[in-house]
Design a protein that fits this description.
alpha/beta; four-stranded parallel β-sheet; about 50% helix
Length: about 190
């Protein structure tokens, strides 16, 4: 890592335990309606619905989350009501960090810049950013470029910002867990 000047990270799934966050947000809705769903199936339904929503025309992430919940409801057989329609939107800022996130970011940020490339709205990311425990120098959100990963626009925007700060592409490393959203587009 000595030659790396900038580390950028995906947030949800890499720094934030989105699986626990999603399952925790939806569990009370399912319980209230007497529906039992395996957590793995719940997360697969989320991934299917969210990917479909992000593949279309850009819309704010809070709308993607609402539509994702509706897609999950159709897939898993629960009802979305006025009372639970924003359960994902409302819970996202509180989804838990992985236990080692803050410590690792603080260590990795010594002597280099840190950044984030995330499929999220600015205002939904702000409370998460404050919990990361490290200085985040560069942020590109889906909202800021009006496109969701795996679209190359978020990565191109980050590359432009880093080049403007004098960081060449070969001194930038993007860290993420999603082959679909991050690894494939960064290889391109």
């Amino acid at each position: 890592l000595a030659c790396i000047e900038e580390l950028t990270f995906d947030v949800f799934g890499t720094l934030v335990d989105w699986e626990t966050g999603i399952a925790g947000a939806i569990a009370p809705v399912l319980q209230e309606q007497g529906i039992t769903v395996d957590v793995d199936e719940l997360l697969r339904a989320y991934a299917r619905a969210e990917s479909a929503e992000e593949a279309g025309l850009y819309r704010p992430y809070r709308e993607v989350l609402r539509r994702t919940l509706a897609g999950m409801a159709k897939d898993l057989g629960f009802r979305v009501t006025g009372e639970n329609a924003d359960v994902l939107v409302d819970s996202l800022p509180r989804w838990p960090l992985f236990a080692d996130t803050a410590r690792a970011l603080a260590r990795l940020g010594q002597g280099r810049s840190l950044g984030v490339i995330s499929n999220v709205d600015e205002d939904l990311f702000a409370p998460v950013r404050s919990r990361l425990g490290a200085r985040i120098d560069h942020v590109v959100t889906a909202e800021s470029v009006r496109a969701y990963k795996p679209d190359p626009a978020p990565f191109e925007a980050m590359r432009g910002r880093l080049h403007a700060d004098g960081v060449p592409s070969d001194r930038w490393l993007h860290v993420a867990q999603s082959g679909y959203h991050d690894v494939a587009p960064t290889r391109e």
